[in-house]
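Thread title: Can someone regenerate the structure for this chain?

I was given the following input by a collaborator and told the matching structure tokens would be attached. They weren't. Posting the sequence so someone can regenerate them.
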Amino acid sequence: MTTQNTTTPPDTAQPDLAALDGLVGHTTVHGIPALFAPRPGPLTAGLLFRVGRADETLPTTGVTHLVEHLALHRLGLSDLHYNGATADAYTLFHVTGDEEEVVTYLNGVCAALRDLPLERLETEKEILRTEAGSRGNGPLSQMPLWRYGAQGHGLASYDELGTRSLTADQVRHWAETRFTRDNAVLWCTGDHVPEGLDLTLPAGRRFPAPAATSALPVTPAYICGDDGHVVFTSVLRRSTAAAVFAEVLGRALFQDLRQKGGYSYSAEADYTPRDADFATLTAYADALPQKQDAALGGFVDVFARLRAGRVEQAELDSARGKSLKRYDVPDLGAALLPSYAHSLLLGHRLLTPERHRAELEAVTVEGLREVAREAWDGGLLQVPTRGAEWAGLTPAPRYSPTGVSGTLHPSLEDDDVTLVLGDTGVTLSLPGGLVTVRYDACAAMTTRPDGARYLTGLDGFRVAVEPTLYGDVTPERIAVVDAAVPAEAVVPLPARKEEEIPRPRERKPAAPAAGTDASGTSGATGKRAWRWSLGLLLILGVDVVFGAGVLLTAVHLAESADPRWNRLLPAVVPGILLMRITYRTYLSATGAPERRP
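Best answer:
Regenerated them for you:
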């Protein structure tokens, strides 16, 4: 895994909050920065913490979500409109009501964070598992995994393993260190912060967003996904031009794929801040199976046009106009509160409306072309078809670059599959390549009492060790794996029912085909075997004659002291290589088997 270079961020200098005077007020409440701006009607408030799924590890995924649920439990049933949300980089508690209701809610959240109702822990774990089971996987669900691996922002692709094994002490420690006054921002609509707030929280520190990792050695890259969906993601430096480009891209996809081509119903693009310096660009188009090749071609064509700088001024003006409209609203300060609080939490610059308008007016067609090139160069495309090399993309790695040495355990289902259990890791040898998880780069290993071990590497590769599916996977060999994997990466899972433990599929002999002789070999197969044997004998005969001729000639020249004998030696190695190439070419052409380790 590698870490993306963030040592040269864009302009992240934050203006003094005083620059927002007259638009947004600011103060502190029990050490928490607070922003407020007036708006008629009920109050709306949000308490943000700089902690989310990307801060967790694979074994502890769900710990932030658990804290959020536990903090809201004591509030019980109410007509009050409130909720909580856990995202990749932040957790939000928000509420709408009158001043007394907002105060009661926020005070209750902070009181619960100081003293979580951990007697509810197992119940809330079960609730989160139920929630995950009903959520399902959308067409974008695997994109974080392929881009980031099984850590950081890639954890958004995984189930919350922590709901299986997190202890009360782990959850309490997470709340005490991450849900602190120094890691929070409060915002509230109103001309003042409500009286009576008690947001007392432990002291801590502001956590920066986790460093982004990469599981893609080369970009642009592609993966194959489900039929009916074309998905593209990229990581862009946060800028006004990048946000405008996302709007231009979405409009171009909609026009070309839906209005003109009729290939898609949904064709859109989105720009979402990831951290202080970078944002995620997402583009999506759906299509019926019979139209998805055309939709993919149109998708790539739109990007090619934008990368070439063929953007109409009207497209730019339309996208810019939509962004400018966000300022044509009453109570502008209140409308901007959530984005200002989010930027303050992440450490991103705070743009005044005047500064943002100026930057929008400065966006040019040439600037959009540069953003388009940056987006494509760092892109990951999920295609419903078999490949995208024709579009200049490289397939994302499906196999590990190397394996480990250790004991070999043949599959009981497939002669071409072998499990290797070593001292440094495990490898699954498949016909297409190797899948390896090294113990020192193991993100998580789930364990079952029946001996099953599922190891997931930080790069996202996974190896399943099922003792019932491989030969000689003894408890002693499992013990070697258990001793090598770091304890913090182990996630014990409950025992499985007997019928849930996988069993090898029964191998059945192939049914005799028409024309099969008494020995069970078809006439066609027999002829191919006869031709292969005869051809191999002929090649070996040529090899023997060639080798013997070279050797005898060399001996004769040497014995006769002919100075030309040493000139014959350079011809030997190329001759041998030629024989080997001829042999391998013949095997490939005839479909003859050639085993590899």
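The CA atoms of residues 17 and 419 lie 59 Å apart.
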